[in-house]
Design a protein that fits this description.
single chain; binds copper (II) ion; 39 strands; 9-stranded mixed sheet; 7-stranded mixed sheet
Length: about 600
């Protein structure tokens, strides 16, 4: 019998006490703009490891409330892994079983009686864990790896824990990935409160002599969405909507939908409600430290009032080559990334290196990499003369509902004694994701990401965020694919009159994909990603091979408030071809 994977680990009262204790604890402040990747990878070689025998976690991630002063006079109750924002940097390698225990010390949030269905944010105390970017077995539904199309999503309740034995394939590409919660209803609230962390796969790329010699900087970029707390007498900010209160960006107030009249009713006593991107106060963090602030602007609601804060600081010697790895862990900000004044040698995206570094020349005002929410960019910079400075910028963009003004994430100063370091000519071969030829394509599918305002299917939220005109359904599995098949998917964001009012980042679990074209522009072979930004009125074409794992999983928009309110779909990877039925393993009668 399979051991139980989810047990109470303390009573609910103890859970509340633990949360209170965590809230009182001094916040752990990370050193400014530096995250040192640890040398020792975690995990046991898969062959030596029975994943369920005596589960000894390599790491325990405890989810709890963290009280932190973000800047002088602004204290916020956030949500964090192990009391730090970002969460601890996990380092592991291909071919191991990484054992992670998730314990949930978040306070309970009872939302059973709220109006609306699963696409109305709910149960903010429930959580689960997604390792984003790893080619591992489906792990969002219960039990892990299930092929039951009706399987429920994993929800680790307050006071509960769950053990995850993540089997990482032998040929998993080395690079920067990450982890975050993925429990439908609470993903956005938890991630934009601080719950995200980096995950490094070490491997061949780290042994390329020019890369091994380079300093390795990990830059985790996150956002925090905040409101003045609704808690009586509170002198802090938080993001803890009461009932299913919705923050009305345009009215600058909080409403609750009245099913009797079909209209939202203003709640003068509430300051905080769920939002699809705009917050009363939002901070952008680099490795936990704020570099930018935005405040809701009632007179111009799609243009928050910007305040630059302190960017991260890096120094390089003249002639030095350094490795920068940037994770866009923001809940919804697309980052057109530029290193102002320096050429970028892009090693790869989303933890998948290219066959050689791709030179992205610096052109003033033009992005070198488009980083949708969840994308990672890894690149080398070679410093010029002493006295030069380079700014790592998020360039201004207007591809989203909110206008994004330019932000300086970090500055690089060139100083000290010169050295002469080199850019490598080639990079290790990628073994897991081979190019997919035309004749291998078994199926071509089209997915349209669109929005409808005001919402018809989701009137509580007030906006419908849909894939192929459907909101997310936990128990529906509209797309069924087969193991070892290759498919071509066209991800479409239509023109504005058909619901394409803004861009959306597409992300799929379990297998990475090869990017064939973006907005009609062919991409070089070997462009492997797990997330791709699709701008308004364009399509991106990707190809995927369902390589190793079967089970029920998801693809979705990685703008988390969109995902939370409907822009997600399940898909099922089946081991072999059989007539399509909704639950084959339950309904095909056994012979004899
Ligand atoms: Cu979206």
């Amino acid at each position: 019998m399979k051991p139980v994977s989810r047990r109470k680990f303390f009573s609910l009262a103890a859970g509340a006490a633990a949360a209170a204790a965590a809230a009182k604890a001094e916040p752990a402040l990370s050193p400014h703009a530096l995250l040192d990747p640890p040398d020792e990878p975690m995990g046991t070689p898969a062959a030596q490891n029975n994943e369920w025998d005596e589960f000894k976690p390599d790491i325990t991630l405890d989810c709890a409330v963290l009280t932190k002063e973000i800047e002088k006079g602004v204290t916020a109750k956030l949500r964090a892994y192990n009391g730090t924002i970002p969460g601890p940097l996990i380092t592991t390698r291909a071919g191991v079983t990484l054992k992670v225990r998730v314990t949930n010390s978040l306070p309970a949030n009872q939302s059973k009686d709220w109006a609306g269905d699963m696409d109305v944010p709910h149960d903010f105390g429930n959580t689960n864990l997604h390792l984003h970017g790893l080619d591992i077995a489906p792990h969002i539904f219960e039990p892990l790896g299930t092929m039951d199309p009706m399987a429920p999503m994993i929800a680790i309740g307050p006071g509960e824990y769950k053990d995850y034995p993540f089997v990482i394939p032998d040929d998993q590409s080395p690079g920067l990935n990450w982890y975050h919660p993925h429990s439908h209803g609470s993903t956005a609230v938890q991630a934009v409160s601080g719950m995200a962390g980096g995950l490094i796969i070490k491997g061949a790329i780290d042994e390329v002599p020019e890369i091994e010699a380079a300093k390795d900087y990990i830059l985790v970029v996150q956002d925090l969405g905040l409101f003045e707390s609704n808690d009586p007498g509170a002198k802090y900010y938080d993001y803890n909507p009461k009932q299913n209160a919705i923050w009305q960006t345009f009215g600058g107030n909080v409403t609750i939908y009245d099913p009797a009249t079909g209209k939202p009713v203003v709640q003068p006593h509430l300051t905080c409600g769920f939002t699809t991107g705009d917050y009363a106060l939002r901070y952008y963090l680099l490795n936990g430290e704020p570099f930018f602030k935005e405040e809701h602007n009632g007179s111009n609601p799609t243009s928050p009032t910007p305040t630059p804060m302190t960017p991260g600081k890096y120094t390089m010697r003249p002639g030095e080559v350094a490795r920068f790895r940037v994770l866009n862990a923001c809940s919804d900000l697309m980052i057109p990334l530029q290193v102002q004044g320096a050429d970028m040698w892009l090693l790869g995206m989303d933890g998948n290196n290219y066959d050689k570094p791709r030179l992205k020349e610096y052109v003033s005002g033009a992005p070198q990499v488009f980083m949708g929410p969840a994308n990672r960019a890894e690149f080398l910079i070679k410093a010029g003369k002493a006295g030069e400075t380079y700014n790592i910028l998020q360039l201004a963009q207007s591809q989203q509902f909110l206008q994004a003004v330019q932000k300086t994430i970090a500055t690089i100063t060139v100083e000290g004694d010169p050295v002469d370091m080199k850019i490598p000519k080639s990079l290790p071969p990628v073994t897991r994701d081979k190019p997919i030829e035309d004749h291998e394509i078994k199926e071509t599918r089209y997915f349209t990401f669109s929005g409808r305002f005001p919402g018809v299917d989701n009137p509580v939220v007030g906006i419908d965020f849909m894939i192929n005109n459907q909101l997310y359904q936990e128990l529906a599995t509209p797309t069924v694919v087969f193991l070892n098949d290759c498919e071509e998917w066209h991800i479409i964001v239509p023109e504005a009159i058909r619901g394409g009012t803004e861009g959306h980042p597409f992300h799929i679990h379990v297998n990475d994909f090869e990017v064939k074209s973006i907005a009609g522009i062919k991409q070089p072979p070997g462009t492997i990603q797990d997330t791709i930004w699709v701008a308004q009125n364009t399509a991106s074409v990707i190809r995927m091979r369902f390589k190793e794992w079967t089970g029920k999983s998801v693809f979705h928009c990685h703008i988390l408030p969109h995902e939370e309110t409907g822009m997600m779909q399940n898909f099922l990877i089946l081991p072999e071809k059989r007539p399509m039925m909704h639950a084959p393993e339950m309904r095909i009668p056994k012979k004899g």
